[in-house]
Amino acid sequence: MIDFEIAREKMVQEQLRSRSISDGRVLEVFRKVPRHLFVSDKYRSQAYADHPLPIGEGQTISQPYIVAFMTESLSLHGKERVLEIGTGSGYQAAILAELCKEVYTVERTASLAESARRTLNETGYKNVEIGVCDGTLGWKERAPFDRIIVTAGAPHLPPSLMVQLADSGRLVIPVGGERSQVLTLFEKNGADITTSELCGCVFVPLIGKDGWKE
Ligand code: SAH
Q: Structural domain boundaries of the chain?
């Protein structure tokens, strides 16, 4: 039997710390959140490996490093309301739930949302609300958000997301082609928007009205 706690510590040391994830709160939650419970039995033994894994419906849970890197780029202090687009397995939402006040996460595929809801209930996360809708339009009824994280690759930044981002907010999104993107960070200060390109990445497509077409 695999000792998941040991596997998690090894993941933190070898995949996160060694690649310069340095925010102590971020490292601590990766030691804590049981990633193996967010994948099916078939992939459980690989849950802490250095690569993405299938989660059904042709979708994937990102590699631990990229989840950590995106989380760190949001610079969370604990009081934020965060919107995630692309719930998938619910793992990224659980990580966020440990680091902020409230997580709102939207998923376009109802079966994935249902299974993420079950896992988040079973693992005890109560500050996560899941919506089934097209996240390229954000979640107007719950806006504004202090942080927004998009975990699928977009052709461009959907305008609604910037509208729903609060002042002094940060938004991270993979933008580019269907096969590869650039992880991009937007920071909003009044009317002023700063853009930084963080790194190259590969995500499944963001499909919707302001994303890729099906
Ligand atoms: N964050 C997830 C991984 C996401 S994979 C995790 O931690 O497991 C990307 C997800 O985005 C997929 O589940 C896909 O169905 C979803 N998705 C794609 N386009 C979307 C859209 N317009 N709105 C909401 N979800 C979307």
A: 4-201
Number of residues that make up the chain:
214
Query: What do you get for the CA distance between the two ends of the chain, in Å?
Result: 41
Q: Which residues pair with 184 in a beta bridge?
A: 173, 197
The arrangement of secondary structure in 4-201, i.e. its CATH architecture, is 3-Layer(aba) Sandwich (3.40)
Q: Which of 20, 22, 40, 62 is catalytic?
A: 62
- Summarised one tens digit per residue, pLDDT across range 72-131 is 999 999 999 999 999 999 999 999 999 999 999 999 999 999 999 999 999 999 999 999
3-state secondary structure 140-209: HHHCCEEEEEECCEECCCCHHHHHHEEEEEEEEEEEECCCCEEEEEEEEECCEEEEEEEEEECCCECECC
- Orientation of helix 24-32 relative to helix 64-74, angle to 10°: 140
pTM of the model: 0.98
- CA quadruple 175, 82, 214, 57: dihedral sign: positive
Around ligand 1, the residues with Cβ closer than 6 Å are: 55, 59-62, 85-86, 88-89, 91-92, 106-109, 112, 134-136, 151-152, 204, 206-208, 211
